[in-house]
Specification:
By secondary structure, this protein is of the alpha+beta class. Helices cover 29% and strands 18% of the residues. The longest helix is centred in the N-terminal third of the chain and has 21 residues.
């Protein structure tokens, strides 16, 4: 499915730039999201496309040709192309059956597969487990409903259940806006700020954007909430971030379009002597220390005692040396006290003392 969508949009950009598919390439990054705003299973693609095409010259160099933003008419045409190709692919795979009146899916799901049942209930907004199994998820409507009468004003194409949105764009120097966009499309499934427990012990989750019928919250039983989370977990070894075109890992043109010059065919690091200074690009990927600070707000480069900068002395990987150093620290500073350590055993009560008190009162 992702290949169909990528090829349709890439071909559109290349033709709009005035080239054929063999003469130019585009670049894109796709983040596959499996969740909707109500923690339902809703697989969709967030794709960041470079707004143009790279012309491949005879010497292998690239020249970028920018194109204008897609109009609503072009988006509708793309949606028609994508929907037809997706339907044809499903039909060739035997998953879609068409007759004179309608089309329907023929999915051979095993009834004893618990994960398939959880995913089916998640897609249809139904309770998966418990005494209310099969019923619609309980929702709260706290605002009046409204009609969606703004179609065609936000660069959105919608046809036969397929939708294509292209209303967000960033310029070259708008790095903060691009970062916010990347953070949005790579966000996790659950927002803790919108998650709460009711007085009855149920899980209440607030929608990011209210539905047209006025729904603002969904209510889950704790066990059903766990089932909804389980349905959102992808299969093992499935990469949810994909790179296309000139940004693909095996693309020969990647070294010409990425700031760090990483990619297939890069020979800059070969032949560098040990005593020669290596120029570090300021746009290279972050170190693990920078990632810890950015994601978890843990700065390992600052001493927790004095607040000064921490310098790396050595990198020790030998287990025997590590155990020797830790044993020396235990002897010098004492073994660390366990957090959940049980208290010392208490002696039995003094029976004679209680007997003496009882006899004196008697």
């Amino acid at each position: 499915m992702l290949g169909i969508v990528n090829r349709a949009i890439s071909t559109h950009l290349i033709k709009k730039a005035g080239f054929k598919a063999a003469q130019a390439q585009v670049g894109a990054v796709t983040l596959i999201q499996r969740f909707g705003s109500a923690l339902n299973l809703n697989v969709h693609f967030h794709m960041l496309f470079i707004d143009g095409a790279y012309q491949i010259k005879y010497n292998g160099q690239l020249r970028f040709h920018r194109v204008k933003a897609a109009t609503t008419s072009e988006l509708n045409t793309l949606v028609v192309t994508i929907s037809q190709r997706v339907a044809g692919h499903l039909e060739r795979q035997g998953l879609l059956v068409r007759d004179d009146k309608s089309s329907y899916l023929t999915l051979d799901l095993q009834a004893d597969d618990a994960m398939n049942q959880l995913q089916e209930h998640s897609i249809t907004y139904r309770i998966a487990v418990g005494p209310q199994q099969g019923r619609k998820v309980f929702t709260l409507q706290t605002i009046p409903s409204w009609e969606d009468d703004d179609f065609g004003t936000n660069q959105v194409g919608k046809i036969a259940g397929f939708s294509l949105h292209a209303g967000v764009a960033t310029k070259t120097r708008e790095r903060r806006k691009l970062e916010r966009l990347c953070r949005y499309i790579s966000r996790p499934a659950v927002s803790e700020k919108r998650l709460a427990l009711t007085s009855q012990g149920k899980v209440r989750y607030q929608l990011k954007t209210p539905y047209r019928d006025g729904t603002t919250h969904v209510i889950f039983e704790p066990l059903d909430f766990m089932a909804k989370l389980a349905a959102l977990v992808p299969k093992p070894r499935v990469n949810l971030t994909r790179y296309h075109g000139v940004l693909a890992p095996n693309s020969k043109q990647r070294i010409y379009v990425t700031p760090a010059k990483r990619g297939k065919g890069n020979t800059q690091k070969q032949g560098v002597k040990a005593d020669e200074p290596v120029q570090v690009d300021c746009r290279q990927s972050m170190t693990w220390a920078e990632r810890l600070k950015r994601v978890f707000n843990i700065d390992i480069t600052i001493c927790s005692r004095c607040g000064g900068a921490v310098s790396i002395i050595a990198c020790i990987e030998d287990p025997a040396v590590i155990n020797k150093i830790l044993a020396h620290l235990d002897v010098k500073f004492g073994a660390p006290v366990a957090v959940n350590q049980l208290p010392e055993p208490r002696a039995p009560p003094q029976e004679k003392l209680f007997y003496w008190v009882s006899t004196r009162r008697g």
